[in-house]
Amino acid sequence: MYLLWGESVGIALTILLYCEFLGLIWWWGHKISKYSHPFRYYGLSFTVKNGRDFLFGLSLGSVTLCVFMALQVGFGWLTLQTVNWLPLSARLLPTLGMYFVDWQGAIAPGLLTAIGVGFAEEMLFRGWILSELERDYSQKTALIAASLFFAILHFIKPLDVVLATWSQFVGLVILSIALVLARWRCEGRLGVAIGLHGGLVWCYYIVNTTHLLKPTGIVPEWVTGINGNPLAGLMGIIFLSAIALGFRGLPKR
């Protein structure tokens, strides 16, 4: 498909390959692991309970990132980029129009992207891979292995980029630990993990697309997030650790 149609087929090819992956893990679960309902075993079930879990996770992820950024604005580490209120009324309306178009073009596409990313990555890392590791190893070993695997696969980059953004690796490991604990606390369902992952991606997408926030330079990038990525900063790692500890402290349902 790529050779025939070039770059324009990139997204379609990605979706096709992921559908193939879903078919393969269903076959693997049904024929190799002998599960009667492979997707349900991997945490994917279309039930009201899992839907509520998803909405809770989406809200938690969105609110967490909003609080994270609001605190940094309050500390003076980030500044809000507001509309340029020009004195000439003839130029004011076009400015406002562009501002709202930016937001309109960020919220809905961002939500769709976030849900897609959340579903795809959770079904792979906290669904299939974690479940298969749990078959042969202890929960602790499965947790560590799945989290390292998640971080390493996100870090296949040139060496200079790896060294420049090393703190993001720590953030990815802690994020994975939080998502694994979220699944364990919900009877193995993936709803909260998909929602939480999606909520974080959604808020980050909106802020990036609208250029809402800008670092003031008062503190180093490794505090707020290298290249604006919350996962690559001390504050982000602290917030993710708090979420992980919160799920760890919850009783299993």
Automatic annotation (TrEMBL):
Residue spans crossing the bilayer: 6-28, 54-78, 98-120, 141-157, 163-182, 189-207, 231-250
InterPro entries for this protein: Rce1/LyrA-like_dom
Pfam families listed in its UniProt record: Rce1-like
Domain CAAX prenyl protease 2/Lysostaphin resistance protein A-like: 106-200
Transmembrane is among the record's keywords: yes
One GO MF term attached to the UniProt entry: metallopeptidase activity
Superkingdom of source: Bacteria
Keywords annotated in UniProt: Hydrolase, Membrane, Metalloprotease, Protease, Transmembrane, Transmembrane helix
Protein name from the UniProt record: CPBP family intramembrane metalloprotease
